[in-house]
Amino acid sequence: MELAMSSAIALLVFAGVYLMLRARSFDLILGLTLLSYATNLLIFSSGRLVAGKPPVLREGVAATTASYTDPLPQALVLTAIVIAFAMTAVTIVLAMRSRADNRSDHVDGHEDAPR
Amino acid sequence: MSIVIEIMLVVLLAVGSAFVLVGAFGLVRLSEFFKRLHGPTKASTLGVGCLLVASVSYHTFIGSDPQPRELLITAFLFITAPISAFMMAKAGLSLRMDDMPQLPGRAEDTHVPERPDHAPDERE
Amino acid sequence: MLELLLATPFVLALLVGLLPASRRRLAAWLAGMAPVIGLVLLALLTSLVLDEGAARSSREWIPGLGLAFSLRLDGLAWMFAGLVLGIGGLIVLYARYYLSQEDSMPRFLSLLLLFMGAMLGMVLAGNLLLLAVFWELTSISSFLLIGFWHHRSDARDGARMALVITGAGGLALLAGVVMIGNIVGSYELDVVLASGELLLAHPLYPWVLVLVLAAVFTKSAQFPFHFWLPQAMAAPTPVSAYLHSATMVKAGVFLLARLHPALAGSDLFFYLVSSVGAVTLLVGSWYAIFQHDLKGLLAYSTISHLGLITLLLGLGSPMAVVAALFHIINHATFKASLFMAAGIIDHETGTRDMRRLGGLRRLMPITATLAILASLAMAGIPLLNGFLSKEMFFAEALAIQGHDVLRTGIPVAALLFGAFGMAYSLRFVHDTFFGKGPRAVKGEVHEPPLFMRVPVALLVLACLAVGIAPGPTIGAALEIAARGVLGDAVPAYSLSIWHGFNLPLAMSAAGVLAGIALYFGLRRLFDLHAVVIRATGHRLFRLNIDSLLRNAQRATKAIANGSLQRSMVWLVLAAVAAGAAPYLASWPEGGPPVPDLAFGQPMGRLEWVLWVLLVGSTLMTLAHYRQRLLAVIVMGGVGLAVSLNFVALSAPDLALTQLLVEMVTLSLLLLGMHYLPATSPTERSLPRRLRDGAIAAVAGLGTGALAYSMMSREPVGIAEELLARSLPEAWGANVVNVILVDFRGFDTFGEITVFGIAALVVHAMLRRARMAPEAVMPGPPVKLPVPADLAQIMFPLTLTVSIFLFLRGHNAPGGGFIAGLTLAVPLLIQYVIQGATSVESRFGFDYIRLVASGLAIAALTGLAAMLFGLPFLTSGHYDLVLPLLGTIPLASAAAFDLGVYLVVFGGTMLMLSMMGTLKPSRLLEARTGVIDPARRSPLTAEVD
Amino acid sequence: MTPNGSPLGLLEPAIVASMFVVSVAMLLSLYRLLRGPTVPDRILALDTLSVTAIAELMLLGMYIKSSIYFEAALVIAMLGFGSTVVLSKYVMRRDIVE
Amino acid sequence: MSHLPILPVLLPLLGGALCLFVEHRRFGAIPQRTVAWLSMAATLAAAIALLGTASGGDVTAYLLGDWPNHLGIVLMVDRLSALMVLTTSILAAACLLHACSGWDRRAPHFHALFQFQLVGLNGAFLTGDIFNLFVFFEVMLIASYGLLLSGGRGVRMRAGLHYVAFNIAASTLFLIALGLVYGVFGSLNMAELSARIASLPPADLTIAKATLGLLLVVFCAKAALLPLYLWLPDAYARAPAAVAALFVIMTKVGIYATLRIGQLLLGEPAGELAGYGQDWMAWGAVGTLALGALGVLGAPRLRVLSAYLVVVSAATLFIAFSLRAEAALGAGLYYLLHSTFVVAAMFMIADLVRRSRGDEMRDLTHPVASPAVRKVAGVMFLVAAVSVAGLPPLSGFLGKLALLQAVPEADVAWVWTAILASSLMVIVGLVRAGSNLFWRVPPPLPEVVGAPPATTRPVETVATMLLLVLGVALSLGAAPVVEYTRATAAQLMSPQDYVRQVRDTDPAWRNP
Amino acid sequence: MFRRWFPSIPLTLSVVAFWLVMNDAFNPAHIAFGLLLGLVIPLFAARLDREFARIGSLRGVPRLLMHLLWDILVSNITVARQVLGRETRIHPGFVWYPLDIDNIHGIAALASMITLTPGTVTTTLSGDRKYLLIHVFNLDDADALIAGIKDRYERPLMEIFP
Lengths: 115, 124, 944, 98, 512, 162
Ligand code: NA
Ligand code: NA
Prior knowledge:
The complex is a heterohexamer. Chain C is mostly helical. In chain C, the strands form 5 sheets. A two-stranded antiparallel ribbon of chain C has the order 1-2. In chain C, strands 3-7 form a two-stranded parallel ribbon. In chain C, strands 4-8 form a two-stranded parallel sheet. In chain C, strand 1 and strand 2 (about 65-75) form a beta hairpin. Chain C starts with a helix and ends with a strand. The mean pLDDT of chain C is about 85. In chain D, helix 1 (about 10-35) packs antiparallel against helix 2 (about 40-65). Classes of the chains: A mainly alpha, B mainly alpha, C mainly alpha, D mainly alpha, E mainly alpha, F mainly alpha. One sodium ion binds near residues 95, 97 and 98 of chain D. Chain A: It comes from Arenimonas caeni.
């Protein structure tokens, strides 16, 4: 399972970085979005992978890691998701404005990118 | 839990998952969009409905944590599925993916324009 | 008193500088007071210098850096201070009449006083760091003075060059001084001067010496840094007379003399200083002959005389030091008067070109007499002061001990110096005051105002007085100065004009004769007036600076070329390097870093399905990225897969949040796509794609490997304690939510701030934006009455669910963030189905204030804890018991979560409504294409 | 499974089998999502995927005897259609909010 | 208990929220400015008080939510954080003043964004939790996006896109590193991390190095170190003056973080990890210094030149901090103060110059036409240039001097060469810029048709002068400042004390 | 006055019911809070309500729902067989269904029911709201289909939404 998760992270980073290195603002946004998935999964994994033990305490079950997974990485991922969302929103609007103002959706604002 | 209930649950599970599968199968198997549109929207509602009933009964009879609220999911699905289907169909029509008959009387619906003859015919 | 002496010019500089440009007379009077007061103070201090060797005062500035405001007036400083103040006074008087109406008198005099103060400070400094401070201050103020006529490009160039060269020297000095301080352990001059042996013996001594000499040579215009001085002649003449003859250029030799006790005495010092001095002396005097510009000639002559002084100091013998000091005074007097005379000529004739001048002795006899006398002093003719120090120099040159080359070379150089000096002095006199002319000069030429001549006359008088009666006039002063450098080692010497017929006298005579022959011979042989010898130094310098600037521009443009992709590539590469380096470094020992693949929990069926879902969607997103709509749809699969992974791996809250955010992000992307091209163009460069692919692959593999390596070790977190304390201390069963609103509530606090700001940013960027969609479908907006009606049933129910999720969040999956989005999404669907205007007209919340309220509520909830003397964000809990209704648990965390709820809802709605209700741009409308529905491809929903 | 929970012992195998079947359904939907060919097909596939995901979540909840996934399923049911609506609207008009 | 540590975060946050409430066309500018200034004044007062508590040398830990430090989030006040907060507040006051000359009315939400920027900056300086540091980085960044983009158009949007995209990428990397930090070390509290790293099993050394290396890369990217500085010149040069001036402190946040990590996590107790990455950063810094100085030389416009000055000062700081010597640290901190104020002033002057031309693209070879601007801006430029070039007697010289003195003998050669050579290049660049701008004779005035002759706005001038006066004050009253920075360095060099003081802080009423 | 504070009694009731089911608790506190929501939420929801349409007798609802459920069950099996069978036997087609009902709630309900019943999907409502375009999975007899829908759904709906 760990290998599967790592490979998924690797693939997401690969796709994300490749798209992040493209010249069009929208591709860049797609890349950053994929990267943020990868990041979230990685932070999430820092609590290790535990199936079927959500950290919502139930009566009569001892509140230990034997019955519940580590809740902290989940809280971190939540924060990360929210922040990534905020950043994505700003980037999209910025891409729109840059496109409208500079007449190109090339990240450098002109069709012929510098070499 | 009585045997009857258990059998009932097993049947519900079987029927539900079977319909879910059929819906998805139709999605893969059928050859054009408007045909595919039928499979999932229907089978899923019934399939998921059965599974939800099974789940509610299961949680109720197993005594640990009765969950009648899961029925609300079904309720939501019954409201939203038609909206989804309606929107997807309209999207399909806007791309002229199938012929539609002339409206009897006056042609009014401006959002589904005439299909020109040279339009590409998308079939698999 | 020392402080007062130093402060006077600065205070007056400030006062003068604040005067309006029209108050010329007042400015001159005020400025004149500075040297007068200074001289009086200096005179009062003289006895102290005589009695105790030096007057001292010290004040702390920055003890931590060894920088103290200590002043020290010893003999050397006394002499220089006298020079600075005395000539300074004459210059002020001269400048009063020299400056024209267009030039701002207060500005000029203020800068002049600033320079005077800097020079005084350098001279008086009793701390090497303080000396360095004032040293650079002289550079800065001289830069401003040289560039006084900044409308002239030669003035700007000259000023820039002077600052760059002397500034570089200043940096070297700073380095040298810090080194000295490190070696000696103090920057106090008294300590440093007493540590000569320590310094000489130190392995870093050569470095110290080279650095200090770099400062000396640049400031005193020694070869090969001499070229800035002629360029600085673009300055107004008072500046040249003051800075470039009497004071600033002497700062270098002053420093040499100042540190003589500490640094001199080594072979390196001897060879380096004397040879540089000798070369400078020859180069300067030779070039001087061929200058057509009066001031140019004087400048090169100055270089040559500075070379002489440097050479003398380099020789190092006590007598040579005395000669150097004597020549410093003599040179200052005759050269300053010559510059002023040149200024007068320029002032009256409008030119300084000797080829156009001539015969001025008839038109301005007094000035001519004065200038001729000063020139003769410069040439070293007996009965004038220049002769005396020249004789001393010749005597020292002949007495050199050391290497053969120097033993013969220096006397030869001395002889040549005498001859060349005579030649250019003759040229100055002959070409200006005798012969035909002047030609093509402005108006009528006559004597300048009386007070413009007075300073010249006073200086020439001094030349004569010293030249005729050196003992009574200068003897005492020279003695004081020499004692300042040499201490008790001052040699016995006699200051008289006649030492009998000796070798130096013969050399003098030979030099004079050779000079006369040289001048007239040169004139005859090849027309002196036509010869233009260009000193290469400044051209080389300018070339270098120009190419430096050009190359800097080119390099900067090439490196920071404004390409985002380049920044990104470097970021990824840096990250890859940082991640891989430790593994690569440990490779030799432990073999290649292969993770233990056997580790791991078995994969369940669901996990496999989710893995396939995730991997498949990701790959397809990548494959379709150029068709943006397809990429966005397929990426929805990635999001769903990630959410389901969270579900499978015990994180329901995450799954919920991810799903909701997914939904809103999708909407934002689609809203944005309306204003962006539908596709990305094909990239031409295959190597580029391969390169990026390789980089991405390495980054991916690296991240994956790190992640695997992390996951395959024992968990070390703080989960146990969080789980154990969640319910009893934070009254919440959903530990993730407890962390969000309690344990790490401050993170959430920051997070909602980020979210709120993001919404504000979107609002700010779009509020006044007018944009044209990339392409539009024909026809009016679509009406969707059936979905609209059905969605209306949804809305109250989702509102209920939202409240449910909010209230239960502390004990079950949910919470403020999720609830906020749950409320926003159905509204979004309303926007989509019914159109923005119809929703906004009925649902007009002030979303901005909603965000602000949310932030305020969260903050105030946190503040409430302070009332109980507890830290910010400490949670509280109270069970409210009501009749009939039973116990209602109230938690402050819920209030905090309410803030979250409001911010999230308000922020999301603000973004969506801003993006949904953009005003079209009239200007850009023309660019918008109308799509022919028939030409759209069902495969991409775009026109191919 | 508790002894009183499933007299025939069929329930747990049935749940597992159902999860398997639903998983297959998810994969089939995924195939359509990735394969297309048309845009509405992909939207439809995404929609189906989220509905099958609800089924899978309910089965998972039965499997671990917990209702912890109720909220997730509810939200998918409630809002999963949102994506469908938004995407369809974009296909229709190239603008989702008019 | 004293709530002082939270105030520099809380006050601007409330101020920002309040700004949004009073923001309305109906109200005009006065209420917003009033709120902004009240908040600014309160924050400044809090910062001063904070410095007072920290100057004694104690480390104050403020346990948010009253949770023990390893469970919750803790705010840390030591000499360094107090100094940074105060620097930020002072700089911000000048920037706010500058903006109140008119820009605040042109940029929507300016005041709120400005206050939130302060929240982010102060939070980043005060937090003792590394994930919380990330959060406040983001607060700071997103507010900076707003400040950069609000009211802007055209090329600024492109520059903004670069700035935003690069920072998001860097933040993503930050998150990856944080995931690894928690996964490997099991804590996010910096004091706790310090202790855990000190007792790290040797088997974990490699992944620990990778993790911390990634963190350092992130901070270097934010601080604009080679090769990660490319984003900076354009973004800073395009920002409105008050904003660009405030941004000067933003690179310092990256430097601060590097310093914090370098001393607390990679300090002496870290054993084999002690000083990890410092050599690379030192070389990167030398390269940055060279390229930054080249940038100063080759800058086409004064704002770009100012932006490269930011790069140069960042590189100088990196060099100072990478020496890992107490005196060098102290010198670096002094230099940090100086460069913050003076470079910020330079941005304001550049704006005055730009406005006087009424033309964004004119380069440094075009003299300033308006006589009023020539005079005022010329004098201010002179002071700023002297200071920033490290010429005496202003603060830049003292900073450079302190740094030169502090270099350990083994490093003298390269450090001195780097610093002195770059100084010379900066001098050349500034002399060229100054003489072109203020000395050359402008073409006859009516070249720009219809544009009214540019004048100086008094408020703007006062704001700029304020910063310059601060620079002068830093040199005249250098002794206590130097003493404080030395003490700060000493405190930084003994992370064990820091960790102990944090760990010894017990919650007010909870069990530890 | 009453209308203003209680825009829709059915909505209030369904919100209360919804709340109680969702919380799975029927204690006084929950009922009180449910009532509060039932009071407040319709006020908000009313702001979205674009078209006010009357609601008539609800007596026909259970019967209608029974019909619907039965049809869903039966058609599901039919359609499943068709999906699993040979595709060439399927003859899909569009049908314009003429509407008699003009209450928008009714039209929406009808469109939903048609869609929920396997084998038929409502795709469009004509601009004049007089026709629904229905896509039929296997179209044998269009008129029979129209008649069936009219009989089983539209007529009962016209009673509920007059
Ligand atoms: Na729109
Ligand atoms: Na149907």
